[in-house]
């Protein structure tokens, strides 16, 4: 049966796109048909495109529904540009259609779980909850390795559970070459304090790999 995997993060800049690519690579290695969806991409004036980066790393099909110039939260960027962007309900409809043609549909959010994806106040949490009503939906939380991650991750997991969504797992988005005491303790404490397993730990710099190397190594990053 087809499934949707929603990838969120505890903040921005923590490796969510590389984590999405790693999840896509794992599904591809299992022989699944995969598509990655970025409902809203901001910062395109700066050359940002998470979907393009996932395609570069994995070669899988990608879709980017809305692109906005400024590197801001989607609703803010849309208001400043004076444009209408699709609602969460519209994004959910598009994702549901994709499940008819793919085994796994990965949906990468923008920033954290409660960042507004549309100008009506809809968030990635709303999108995940909407999808879960009609298709098998998992949520993966990408977390940082260093100080502050326990609080941020517990808050994100708590918000998901408050909506009846149990996270499928955590991914540490960038593990340093020389981890310090905080990182080593967090590796043990994250699953303990959240009750959510760590699915994968991605090495720092993984996003700079070429496609062949990324696909070969990514399967080894999962527990």
Automatic annotation (TrEMBL):
Residues the record lists as binding substrate: 42
Chief place where the protein resides: cytoplasm
Domain of life, source organism: Bacteria
Catalytic reactions of this protein: (7R,8S)-7,8-diammoniononanoate + CO2 + ATP = (4R,5S)-dethiobiotin + ADP + phosphate + 3 H(+)
Catalytic activity, EC: 6.3.3.3
Catalytic residues (positions): 38
Family membership: Belongs to the dethiobiotin synthetase family.
Function per UniProt: Catalyzes a mechanistically unusual reaction, the ATP-dependent insertion of CO2 between the N7 and N8 nitrogen atoms of 7,8-diaminopelargonic acid (DAPA, also called 7,8-diammoniononanoate) to form a ureido ring.
Name of this protein: ATP-dependent dethiobiotin synthetase BioD
Annotated source species: Nocardioides koreensis
Record lineage: Bacteria, Bacillati, Actinomycetota, Actinomycetes, Propionibacteriales
């Amino acid at each position: 049966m087809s499934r949707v995997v929603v990838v969120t993060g505890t903040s921005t800049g923590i490796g969510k796109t590389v984590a999405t690519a790693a999840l896509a690579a794992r599904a591809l290695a299992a022989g699944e048909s995969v598509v990655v969806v970025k409902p809203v991409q901001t910062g395109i004036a700066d050359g940002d495109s998470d979907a393009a980066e996932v395609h570069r790393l994995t070669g899988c099909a990608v879709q980017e529904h809305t692109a906005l110039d400024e590197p801001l939260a989607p609703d803010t960027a849309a208001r400043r540009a004076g444009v209408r962007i699709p609602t969460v309900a519209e994004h959910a409809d598009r994702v549901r259609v994709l499940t008819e043609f793919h085994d796994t549909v990965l949906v990468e959010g923008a920033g954290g779980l409660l960042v507004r994806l549309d100008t009506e106040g809809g968030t990635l949490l709303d999108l995940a909850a909407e999808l879960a009503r009609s298709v098998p939906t998992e949520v993966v939380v990408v977390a940082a390795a260093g100080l502050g991650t326990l609080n941020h991750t517990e808050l994100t997991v708590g918000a998901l559970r408050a909506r009846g969504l149990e996270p499928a797992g955590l991914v540490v988005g960038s593990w340093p070459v020389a981890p310090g005491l905080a990182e080593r303790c967090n590796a043990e404490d994250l699953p303990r304090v959240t009750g959510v397993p760590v699915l994968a730990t991605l090495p720092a710099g993984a996003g700079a790999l070429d496609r062949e190397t990324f696909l070969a190594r990514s399967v080894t990053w999962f527990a």
